[in-house]
């Protein structure tokens, strides 16, 4: 196929070809957009495209207009319909018979930037979220897909991104909900607690594990003991307004615990012997078992931190792992 642009022909010119060309597609790959930076005194006289199942070749014929050599560069854009979507076919371009390097265009933004279906879906969802109360359920996937007139796969991708951004949360077997209000928290020797000055929901916990178990390799490595050595494992499910918010898991070597008489006072004794606490904070996701306890999808972002308490001899006393919902927690770190 060939597209001819009517231009006033001028004197022939043998200038250099453009340093590069840019390309993009529209209409689901069926329209090729070619962007060419060139001298202001040059005109595109003819642009032809030949294509087969493996390649698409663009040939640009230009006309040079008499003028100064040191003219400014301008950008021309030409739109060409293709017989089939570009897909993975190889794309090449020549300028007056000389091959020009091609780069796929990524718009810098503005009114001319084409908005993807997923981006449009995200904007529509955010507008809907702004009209709902925290904790409110979103309409079903089928209803949203019909309302926004987008494919379910595209909608699912948009919801995934909003989940990672903390705008919504997914509950196992229940649906998608508007993210609840943020909670100002502080790290404590026991794991996590609401800041005393933070207004809002009440904070509580339920013990889900309190047992003597064999240390796995990760726990043993953190505590400086051998895998299989016995440790006291204390696990607590953190609750806000009776809903799961986070998990705290503590491991204490039984051998160290035996150094102190009286089990009721042993944990307090450990806190008193702590000389230093090494803390590492990172983004994480829940394991399948943790996701079930927290009533969340595994893609929900979580904030995890590991704390290793050591005594004056740098011997580990205990290991604490805290996992909290990343869409709700705001950590207050004391100076």
Automatic annotation (TrEMBL):
Gene3D superfamilies listed in its UniProt record: Chorismate lyase-like, Winged helix-like DNA-binding domain superfamily/Winged helix DNA-binding domain
Region listing for Disordered, in residue ranges: 1-21
Keywords tagged on the record: DNA-binding, Transcription, Transcription regulation
Membrane-traversing stretches: none
Domain of life (superkingdom): Bacteria
Chain ranges of the HTH gntR-type domain: 111-181
One Pfam family, short name: GntR
InterPro entries: Bact_HTH_transcr_reg (IPR050679), Chorismate_lyase_/UTRA_dom_sf (IPR028978), Tscrpt_reg_HTH_GntR (IPR000524), UTRA (IPR011663), WH-like_DNA-bd_sf (IPR036388), WH_DNA-bd_sf (IPR036390)
GO molecular function terms noted in the UniProt entry: DNA binding
PANTHER family according to UniProt: MANNOSYL-D-GLYCERATE TRANSPORT/METABOLISM SYSTEM REPRESSOR MNGR-RELATED, MANNOSYL-D-GLYCERATE TRANSPORT_METABOLISM SYSTEM REPRESSOR MNGR-RELATED
Name of the protein: DNA-binding transcriptional regulator, GntR family
UniProt organism field: Kibdelosporangium persicum
Biological classification of the source: Bacteria, Bacillati, Actinomycetota, Actinomycetes, Pseudonocardiales
């Amino acid at each position: 196929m060939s597209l001819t642009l009517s231009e006033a022909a001028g004197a022939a010119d043998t200038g250099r070809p453009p340093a590069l060309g840019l390309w993009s597609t529209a209409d689901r790959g069926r329209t090729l957009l070619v962007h060419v930076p060139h001298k202001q005194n040059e005109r595109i006289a003819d642009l032809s495209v030949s294509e087969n199942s493996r390649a698409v070749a663009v040939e640009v014929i230009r006309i040079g207009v008499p003028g100064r050599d040191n003219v400014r560069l301008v950008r021309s854009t030409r739109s060409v319909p293709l017989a089939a979507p570009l897909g993975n076919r190889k794309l090449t371009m020549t300028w007056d018979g000389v091959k020009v390097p091609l780069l796929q265009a990524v718009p810098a933004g503005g009114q001319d930037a084409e908005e993807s279906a997923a981006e449009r879906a995200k904007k529509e969802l955010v507008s809907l979220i702004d009209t709902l109360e925290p904790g409110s359920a979103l309409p079903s996937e089928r209803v949203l897909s019909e309302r926004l007139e987008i494919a379910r796969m595209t909608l699912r991708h948009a919801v995934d991104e909003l989940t990672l951004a903390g705008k919504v949360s997914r509950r196992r077997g229940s649906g998608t909900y508007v993210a609840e209000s943020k909670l100002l928290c502080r790290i404590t020797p026991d794991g996590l607690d609401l800041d005393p000055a933070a207004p809002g929901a009440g904070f509580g916990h339920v013990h889900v594990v309190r047992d003597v178990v064999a240390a796995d390799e990760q726990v043993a490595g953190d505590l400086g003991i051998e895998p299989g050595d016995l440790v006291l494992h204390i696990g607590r499910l953190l609750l806000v307004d009776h809903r799961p918010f986070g998990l705290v898991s503590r491991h204490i070597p039984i051998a160290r615990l035996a150094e102190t008489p009286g089990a009721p006072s042993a944990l307090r004794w450990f806190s008193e012997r702590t000389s230093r606490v090494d803390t590492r904070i990172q983004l994480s996701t829940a394991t399948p078992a943790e996701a079930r306890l927290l009533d969340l999808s595994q893609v929900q972002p979580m904030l995890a931190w590991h704390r290793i308490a050591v005594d004056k001899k740098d011997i580990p006393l205990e290991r604490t792992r805290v996992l909290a919902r990343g869409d709700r927690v705001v950590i207050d770190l004391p100076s």
